[in-house]
Each structure stands twice: as structure tokens, then as C-alpha cells.
Amino acid sequence: LQIESQLRRAADHEEFRLVYQPQVDLRHGRVVAAEALIRWQNHQLGELRPDLFISHAESTGDIVRIGRWVMHEACRQVREWMDQGLGVVRVAINVSYRQFVGEDLAEQVREALAEFDLPGSALELEFTERVLIEDAPSTLQTFADLRDMGVVLTIDDFGEGYSALNYLRRLPIHGLKLSQLFVEGVPGNRSDVAVCEAVCGIARSLGLGLVAEGVESEAQRQFLLKLGVPVGQGFLFAPGLPPDEFARRLEELQ
Ligand code: G
Ligand code: G
Ligand code: G
Ligand code: MN
Ligand code: NA
Question: Is 8 within 8 Å of 77 (Cβ atoms)?
Fold first, then answer.
């Protein structure tokens, strides 16, 4: 497949970049973190969306190399922002299931943090529910090691997949991300409202943080605030921004 042969060479040809979507305090819009989102510009295929190529990269195994690049680049960027005196801010990166199995993820993170002299708290890892479900023998230890480094651990797209409540209880994670699938329908759609309330209740009773995704309207922001969701991200605030635009945005708000 063309996409797969191009993928293999993309990292070497510097075809990837990261954009950064602000996570904001839903009360007054202060930026509390940024999610790094990968972009791929290929000379033959054009701009490809991650939901298309990430699944290819997962099946070929290229995701392991791409994931290393993402972690390195995100840490390099945070260091640059810190050196510029910007009040940043933690960066969240998306981690695939494949990066977790058969790889020493905790060691990778330790090396990246050390290279750029960053505290663990500068980094957040977003996992999918699949990581919980597969429950590899080393998972619990890896989570514990990462948490001991101060790295923030969250479950992405919570509620979309399997929602393994049993695993949530056992793993030392910090927070959940409420899937935009459910945020989309509030406040009008009653079943979406019910799911948002339920996820909020789970987060609260387990003592977990909660970030709402896909906040596009003022009505959604108001609804989530009333529900007690502290942080959100979405087009209401900003899409993923190139690093210089993200930095400008931060400066404006400070
Ligand atoms: O960036 P976009 O809004 O198109 O993201 C689409 C999907 O791709 C999301 O599910 C997101 O989690 C995933 N994604 C974006 N960047 C990365 C990345 O660096 N690594 C992994 N594994 N997934 C990513
Ligand atoms: O739970 P603990 O006290 O270990 O939290 C450590 C750090 O993680 C704190 O800085 C806290 O604000 C942050 N945190 C807790 N929950 C979340 C979350 O859901 N998302 C994000 N981004 N940070 C969180
Ligand atoms: O799965 P993950 O949450 O990592 O992916 C985030 C995805 O959601 C990215 O593709 C990003 O571009 C997209 N996104 C971010 N904010 C919004 C939003 O407000 N509305 C919609 N429809 N998509 C969003
Ligand atoms: Mn994510
Ligand atoms: Na998500």
C-alpha cells in the first residue's frame, strides 16, 4: 500500500509536525495544558489526517517509531517554551496501545525528560481504553513508574470504547477525557446529557480529573460548567495550533 511505504520514510524525511490544542479552565479560559496532535504532510499523498494513518501505523508497527518522535518533539517544544519564559503548561501526547506493549514506555519517557531537563509534571500521556482492557502484565508497573515520575496519566475518549470500570479502580491514573461523541449532543440531547452526567459522576467518585473534549459552543461550555467539569478543549477556544501561534495565544492570556 502506498500509504504504508510512505509512512515508513516519513519520519526520516521530516514530514511530521505537531500542533497544540489548548486545554482551558472552563470558568475563565485560562490555558492549563496543551494536547499535541500529529500532522503529516506528504509530497505524494498531501496532508493526511491522523485518524487515517495512525491505524495503518499501528498495524505495521511504525507507530512505535512515530510515537518516539512525538514524545521527543513535544518535550523539545516544552523546553523551548520554558526557555522563552512562557508560563507553560503541560503538554499531553496521545499514546497508542502498541507503544505500551513490548516497549519500555517508562524508560522512554525518563530519557526524553532527562534530555530536555523537564520535570515529569510537564508531560501528560493520554491512553485509550484498550490499554486498560488488554491488561498486559507489565501495565500496572509501567503506570506506577510513570506516576512516580510525576507524569500525568489520563484515559482518552472515555466512554467510547469498553469503559472497563474495574481497571479504572486499579490503575494509578489522574483523570479522564470525556469523549466529544457525548459532548456534541449537550445540552439538547437527553441521552448525551445522561452519559456526560454519568462520566462526571464516575470521575468524581473515583477522585479523578475530567477534561471535556470537542467543546464547540457557549451552550456546551455552560452545561459542562454546571455539571462541575473544570477543564475543556475544543473549537470554541482553539483548534490545534502551530507552536508559534500557541505561544502567542498564551502570551495574550497572561
Ligand atoms: O488531530 P485530530 O484531531 O485529527 O486527531 C484524530 C485522532 O488521531 C485522535 O483520535 C487523536 O487521538 C489521534 N492522534 C493525534 N495525534 C496523535 C499522535 O501523536 N499519536 C497517536 N497515537 N494518535 C494521535
Ligand atoms: O492526583 P494527583 O494529585 O497526583 O495529581 C497530580 C497532578 O495531576 C496535579 O497537577 C493535578 O492538577 C493533575 N491532574 C489531576 N487530574 C488531571 C486531569 O484529569 N487532567 C490533567 N490534565 N491533569 C490532572
Ligand atoms: O481522539 P483525540 O481526542 O485525541 O482527538 C482529538 C481530535 O478532536 C482531533 O482530531 C481534533 O482536531 C478534534 N477536535 C478538537 N476539538 C474539536 C471540536 O471542538 N470539535 C470537533 N468536531 N473536533 C475537535
Ligand atoms: Mn487525545
Ligand atoms: Na480524545
Answer: no
Q: Which residue has the higher pLDDT, 12 or 51?
A: 51
Give the chain's largest Cα–Cα span. 50
CA 177 to mean position of chain CA atoms: 9
Confidence of residue 133 (pLDDT cuts 50, 70, 90): confident
- Which residue bears the cell 507552536? 243
Query: Distance (Å, rounded) from C-alpha 17 to C-alpha 188?
Result: 37
Complex-level ipTM? 0.87
Cα of 215 from ligand 5 centre, angstroms = 12
Verify whether ligand 2 is closer than 6 Å to residue 93 (CB atom).
no
CB 7 within 8 A of CB 57: yes
Contact 146, 125 (CB under 8 A): yes
If you take atom 17 of ligand 2, which residue's CA is the nearest one?
209
- Does any ligand 2 atom lie closer than 6 A to the CB of residue 212? no
Assigned superfamily of 2-253: EAL domain (3.20.20.450)
Domain chopping of the chain, boundaries = 2-253
Q: CA 76, CA 133: separation in Å to the nearest integer?
A: 32
Q: Hey, which residues does 231 pair with through a beta bridge?
A: 25, 211
Residues 6 or more apart whose CB falls under 8 angstroms from that of 82 comprise 88, 118, 122
Q: Which of 180, 181, 217 to mutate to test the pocket of ligand 3 (most atoms within 8 A of CB)?
A: 180
Q: Is the pLDDT of residue 163 over 70?
A: no
Q: How many other CB atoms sit within 10 Å of the CB of residue 84?
A: 11
